[in-house]
Amino acid sequence: MRSGERRKDKKAALSDYSRAEQLAGLAVSLSSGSADAWYWHGVALGKQGEARGMMRSLFMVGPLKKRMEGALRLAPCHAPAHHVLGELLWQLPGVLGGSKAGARKELEAALACDGSYTAPYSTLAEVYLDAGLKKEAEALGPRLKAIEHPTDPADFVDNAADLKRVLGK
After folding, report:
1. Mind listing the pLDDT tens digit for each residue in 23-68?
2. Strand residues in 60-151 grouped as ranges (E)
């Protein structure tokens, strides 16, 4: 997955994401009781969708939701799966299944499950700001700064910068 994220060439990135989806699909078939296998299978599909663009990827929305729901069926407090669902609901137009209220619910669930998982902070801030909840959005800044041991240390700096950008600070 990470190799696809580092690629400048879209075709090469798509190839990496396709391979990741195949391997994650194999993981699901070998261990269907693994929430992480379901999650990574969905992430690989989502990365392909991002690389292709929204209009070419609308057919992926249902399968992506099913994979995240599969992860949550096995581990109801799987913060990354809640985050992916929240992002999906936030980015999709309402006529295509998006929901601002649903996005807020999933992103808040992600932080309730694991407040040290920093990826959802910036999108939740956007959701709050869009709903006119400026105080709630701004409260995420100090909350993120207080995290001593982020769940994904490799992404912490980027996640903090994203939140700062969203909050305009």
Report:
1. 878 888 888 899 999 999 999 888 887 777 766 667 788 999 999 9
2. none
Residue 122 contacts residue 166 (beta carbons within 8 Å): yes
Would you say the pTM of this structure is higher than 0.85?
Answer: yes
Among the listed residues 126, 124, 59, 66, the one whose alpha carbon sits nearest the alpha carbon of residue 96 = 59
In the block, residue with structure tokens 């992430």: 43
Give the position of tokens 């694991």: 114
d(CA 110, CA 112): 6
Can you read off the two tokens belonging to residue 87?
Answer: 């992002």
Residue 21 to residue 43: CA distance in whole angstroms:
8
Spatial separation of the C-alpha atoms in residues 54 and 37, rounded to whole Å? 24
Count of the separate structural domains present in the chain = 2
Is 71 found in the same domain as 39?
A: yes
Query: Residue 10's pLDDT band (boundaries 50, 70, 90)?
Result: low
Report d(CA 75, CA 3) in Å as an integer.
27
**Contact status, residue 87 vs residue 78, Cβ threshold 8 Å:** no
**Burial class, 149, CB count within 10 angstroms (exposed 0-12 / middle 13-18 / buried 19+):** exposed
Residue 120: give the domain boundaries. 100-169
